[in-house]
Amino acid sequence: MSLANSKTNQTLIIVITPTYSRLTQLADMTRMANTLMHVPNLHWIVIEDGLQIDKNIRNLLRRSQISFSYLPFKTQPGYPKRGWFQRSMALTLLRETARHFKSNTNSVVYFGDDDNSYDIRLFTEYIRNVRKLGMWSVGGWLLKSGRAEAARNFPRDATRKLAV
To answer: Kind of enzyme, top EC level (predicted)?
Structure first.
């Protein structure tokens, strides 16, 4: 894994994408690659849920000219499906290869699923500007009468410190 392709002092965005063999996999990965190829200073870690990588996905990654790592890690017994094990393996890979980062390189990790569509502004205007911890909810608000209203009210202890 070579992360030394940084041409600027911009924050390096590392996108971790778990994937698995299915009818729409190549189309989903193509759509995601078509977005990520427009994001400068990005490294894409793709983890295949299987015993080997898929040659079509490997070829797509090569054609995209995105800096990437592509590895197979079959989900182990006891782990839920949905890419949990693959994300954990990608984080392990990052910890083991930290020496490839320049000491002055800021980086941020984003977990991007291959079956979603992404607006490039997510990467260029938000993720790139994360300094410590960035998070947002998945899903949306319930709309009633043209106003957004929370579907549930979750009380929060104002004295509780947040994990940052």
So the answer is: transferase
DSSP, res 140:
-
Total-model pTM: 0.78
- Count CB-CB contacts under 10 A for residue 118: 17
Helices (H), ranges, the chain: 25-36, 55-64, 84-96, 120-121
Least confident of 10-24, 42-56, 66-80, 143-157: 143-157
Can you list the pairs that 57-64 forms with residues at least 24 positions away whose Cβ atoms lie under 8 Å?
Answer: 57/19, 57/25, 57/26, 57/29, 60/26, 60/29, 60/30, 60/33, 61/33, 64/33, 64/36, 64/37
Is 113 labelled as part of a ligand binding site?
Answer: no
